[in-house]
Amino acid sequence: MNAILRDSLKNNQAYYKEGELANYIPALAKADSKAVGISMIDIEGNSYSTGEYEKKFAIQSVSKPITLILAIMDNDIDFVFNKVGVEPTGDPFNSIIKLTGSAKPYNPMINAGAIAVTSMIKGKDNEEKFKRILNFFRKLAKNDKLKLDQEIYLSEKETGDRNRSLAYYMKDQGIIEGDVEEIVDLYFKQCSIEVTCKDIANMAAVLANQGVDPITEKRVISKKIARIVRTLMTTCGMYDKSGSFAIEVGLAAKSGVGGGIMAEVPKKFGIGVYGPALDDKGNSIVGMKILKELSQRLNLSIF
Ligand code: GLN
After folding, report:
1. Which of 24, 57, 93 for a ligand 1 pocket mutation test, highest count of atoms within 8 Å of Cβ?
2. Pocket residues for ligand 1 (CB within 6 Å)?
3. What digits encode the pLDDT tens for the residues 38-83?
4. Nearest 5 degrees, angle CA 69-CA 70-CA 76?
5. Last residue of some domain: 191, 225, 256?
6. Is residue 179 part of a domain?
7. This prediction's pTM
């Protein structure tokens, strides 16, 4: 297994040249575009890793399915999906186009949907809400050290006007309630949590194991919530590339502009890959190529 991981890293690393670092959040553009890491954890708890699998990066949109789980647990399934849909958009992750009209975001994997989801997290103030999000991420990643990357958070806060506009419009239309600046601030913090490939592979392993932590064997997410979130990752997790990713790789996955992709193989593996050079849709190029190779060599596609 380790040899397969090493091979797929070596075979695909050079694709970083075809991508670009996210620069709309200036602090993300400081990443090393050649860096690659892979981590795979099976549901017996064995882990396999190669490359820069311990390098820290901002979780960005890989946070969206995890916060969605917490929001459903804090409220309930109907409450959440009354406000946010479950359909793919075919549009970029930060698009404003399909918000016009009712402002109900199409799905929780795009920014508008994720901001609405973050607004549903319970807590007496933002500090408590962020603590709850961070603790939930730590629990799924089995890493008590996860923390905020302050520089990325501030950079995102300074440049996040597109997200602010999505949020203000959703508030006007009654999709979200409360103080918009506080809601987007919480969303920026959630996106700026530092993780490694291993952390997101651990998170994915819980999903792959249908909500039961493979190591502690404790149920952390209900089977039903795990199924809903895995389905949304399959249909919407790679934004307007979700269709071709389903054909080429065939796994539930979620990408983030920090360069991470979290993928799960039902009842088998949680996978985390990292490579900060992105394609034009905001997905890690090297990450997608590696997942394609792993899927083919290990026959992992769910289709
Ligand atoms: N924080 C990023 C943003 O809101 C998340 C986008 C992403 O990772 N695709 O723009």
Report:
1. 93
2. 60-61, 93-94, 111, 156, 163, 191, 256-257, 282
3. 999 999 989 999 999 999 999 999 999 999 999 999 999 999 999 9
4. 80
5. 191
6. yes
7. 0.97
